[in-house]
Amino acid sequence: MTIKEVSEKYDISQDTLRYYERVGMIPLVTRTTGGIRDYQKEDLAWVELAKCMRSAGLPVEAMIEYVKLTQEGYSTIPARFQLLTEQKEALMKQRAKIDATLERLNYKIGRYEIAMETGVLTWDE
Amino acid sequence: MTIKEVSEKYDISQDTLRYYERVGMIPLVTRTTGGIRDYQKEDLAWVELAKCMRSAGLPVEAMIEYVKLTQEGYSTIPARFQLLTEQKEALMKQRAKIDATLERLNYKIGRYEIAMETGVLTWDE
DNA sequence: ACTTGACTTGGAGCTTACTGTAGGTATTAT
DNA sequence: ATAATACCTACAGTAAGCTCCAAGTCAAGT
């Protein structure tokens, strides 16, 4: 699969795909003899994982470390476990912040709704 | 309340507090005759709101627009309603992405746990 | 063989959101 | 009055994560 096809399939720009590979956020992609990227199933799985992690806000740095550990073999399994656990904690904290903010937004939105119906805005900020 | 006290109370650097005011993410803060910031209850409420929104990842730009609308009076209530509703949608999407990523992390973490107990790693990425 | 278009690298540039610095002013304690 | 400390503005610098560009290479069609 060419970089163009991967770019379209996952809605990630070609530049970003090359960037991910360059910084080590995904392992080196399979190439043709001419040096052109030819994404295999495994390469695609890494791209998909990277996209998922990034979309949640997980830092590029964490993915780079994870890829590095994975390439170092089984001995790094405890380290990988720890890394993923830490990232999981971080995401859970982030979700809690979003939930708190959503509650506030809902409250404000509700007040604006009432204001638009009745013409009265209570407790403005 | 001085900027130092506000900084400590909300755990936001003084630089950031000044930055928030400068870019209009919070309205202009009350000053002493000497020109020094003296945060009043209302100023603090804005700081707190800004902190909450930013911690959830809501863009600074959105808060700037919201503050601007608020200062333009009641006629902007529908616009404020729309702005907050859009930001709410964005946060809900972000939360969904976090949830999807958390599921994947949990799956991987579970597999690493089993690997550490049994020495066998199934279905590696 | 030649053109066209997609691909390559290396490196510069951009955006967002701060963060730090320099040079000056205000306030507080002695 | 003076020294120490906290504050001020304006502006430059930084970090993360892309994004764009130039100059060149590869591959497919004619």
What's the helix count of chain A? 5
Low-confidence stretches of chain A: none
CATH fold-level topology of the largest domain in chain A = Multidrug-efflux Transporter Regulator, Chain: A, Domain 2
How many whole angstroms does the radius of gyration of chain A measure?
21 Å
Oligomer: homodimer
- Mean pLDDT level of chain A: 96
Instruction: Please give the domain count of chain A.
Output: 2
Shape of chain A: elongated
Based on the model shown, name its key terms:
mainly alpha, 70% helix, homodimer, 0% strand, 125 residues, Multidrug-efflux Transporter Regulator, Chain: A, Domain 2, 5 helices, 2 domains
Question: What do these coordinates show?
Answer:
2 copies of one chain form a homodimer. With 125 residues, chain A is an all-alpha fold. Chain A folds into 2 domains: 1-71, Multidrug-efflux Transporter Regulator, Chain: A, Domain 2 (Orthogonal Bundle), CATH 1.10.1660.10; 77-125. Chain A has 5 helices and no strands. The longest helix of chain A has 42 residues, at 77-118. In chain A, 22% of the residues are buried. Chain A binds a DNA duplex (30 and 30 nucleotides) through residues 2-4, 13-16, 18-19, 22-23, 32, 34-37, 54, 59-61.
